[in-house]
Amino acid sequence: MRRSFPLALVSWLLLSGVAQAQNLVPNGGFESVKGRVSAVDQIGRAAGWGAVTLGFADLFTRDAGHPDVVVPGNLYGSIEPVEGDRYAGLFAWKDDGRFTAHDEGRQDPFAPGWNVYAEYIQIELRRPLTEGEQVRVRFMAALAPMSDRAVSGLGAYCSPVALHGDHRRFLQEKAQVASATVLDQRGAWVEVSGTFEADGGERHLVIGTFPYVGFEAARLVDGPDNKYAYYYIDAVSVEPVIN
Question: Which segments within 153-243 are labelled E, that is strand?
């Protein structure tokens, strides 16, 4: 005999399913790819994702065509994905070390960091956020085992327009969600998350380091070091808060 359910229960089940499936980030796990990953600087092979500035980020996968970008062991260390077979990676901070007299007249978005190199990844959301909407942003980050530095300020910014910068420095934007503490656990996934109220019209998600919400760099080794903080990124989500 076919069982029947009260209409209220059916409605609740449907709404619950919608709420659980309402991640506004397509390809938040970097599982959908276009072509084979065969080198560093190929974040664009992850469907929907791209770089924001001239600093190109990376995509790592089990079926990579080069050992530098394979999962789990690659150029920056070894770690399994949070889920699936892939994750992204970016320099949250790197001492570029190429300051010359020719550069003195250039305007830097973050004056104390004239020699900073940073990378950002970006994706368009499934829909724009609405004014007053409460949103939870979440992603998993892991400091790469080869990193000798670690930073705070790693976070996410929801922008009404796609960002593009003809440089390799820190962005000026103030992230809605960012880590207030230095993420210094090498080879371990940690959650970066938070909620905010949307202004309305935010359509693009950018992940990277946002020094204008607070920035600190920590040195993890004594003596000479490689002067970079590299983080793996996985399990990205933007979800409306359902009350």
Answer: 154-159, 177-178, 190-197, 204-209, 217-219, 228-240
